[in-house]
Amino acid sequence: MDNKLFGLIGFPLEHSFSVPYFSEKFSREGIQASYRNFPLKNIAEFKELVASELGLAGLNVTVPYKEQILPYLDALSETARNIKAVNTICFCRKEGIHALVGHNTDVIGFERSLKEHLKDHHQAALVLGTGGSSKAVTYVLKELGMDYSLVSRNRGEDRISYDDLDEKMVANHPVIINTTPLGMHPDSNSFPSIPYEAITPQHLLFDLIYNPEKTAFLLKGEERGARIVNGYDMLLYQAEASWEIWNRKR
Q: Digits of tens for pLDDT over the chain (250 positions)?
């Protein structure tokens, strides 16, 4: 992997976790590689990026492109194909030909982090948001056999709206997972509109956001005595899973 280039696509990327994480990892472990942010204002810019950065060996994908990237890839892992969302791209090169393979390590990261905090009574979840990240979350919940309800701004066939949420529903779902960007820096005062007064010490609130460390969503849960978890450990786990994929022998 000498002198290979890795990076992150998404928009915006001013406060990304990946560059400092991988840069420190490469320095600590003596790896001759670099990691850069590639902010794309439009997913159509992806083709130009691949054509111009010939040293690319792997990319991570963040919002808003985890689903939009799919048509630009040559193949998907089984998990990414089932979820229909990608956060890791492996650049497989054989005889000068690119094969861009999409994976989803959010599943690995979320499952490992969630299982560290689950208790026996955590049998049902509310999943706030229906974007690419929520697909990884619901995939894990299905694998764990946990009942869940999707919550979105608009009611749909497979989801309820925030207006449908009442105290009873919150009480009956002791796990609440925020997959929306509400509360992310710099908009740290925003939060999902749910009946926080129904949250109890029996609840687990999990926010995929890691910056700030405690979002307004988590702080409101903490005030009610709930166990709270941010997305930092999930990011660590998914980053290491991405690195393993990029280093697989082909």
A: 458 999 999 998 987 899 999 999 999 999 999 999 999 999 999 999 999 998 899 999 998 999 999 999 999 999 999 999 999 999 987 666 679 999 999 999 999 999 999 999 999 999 999 988 999 999 999 999 999 999 999 999 999 999 999 999 999 999 999 999 999 988 999 999 999 999 999 999 999 999 999 999 999 999 999 999 999 999 999 999 999 999 986 5
- Own/partner pairs, 79-83, CB within 8 angstroms, 24+ separation: 79/103, 79/104, 79/107, 79/139, 80/104, 82/139, 83/107, 83/135, 83/136, 83/139
Question: How far is CA 194 from its chain centroid?
Answer: 21
Active site residues: 66
Residues 6 or more apart in contact with residue 227 via CB below 8 angstroms: 117, 201, 203, 204, 205
Q: Report the C-alpha gap between 206 and 36 in whole angstroms.
A: 28
The Cα 21–Cα 18 span in angstroms is 5
Q: Are strands 97-103 and 75-76 parallel, antiparallel or unpaired?
A: parallel
pTM, full prediction? 0.92
Cβ burial, residue 102 (10 Å; 0-12/13-18/19+): buried
Question: Omega before 64 cis (within 30°)?
Answer: yes
Whose structure tokens read 């066939």?
A: 157
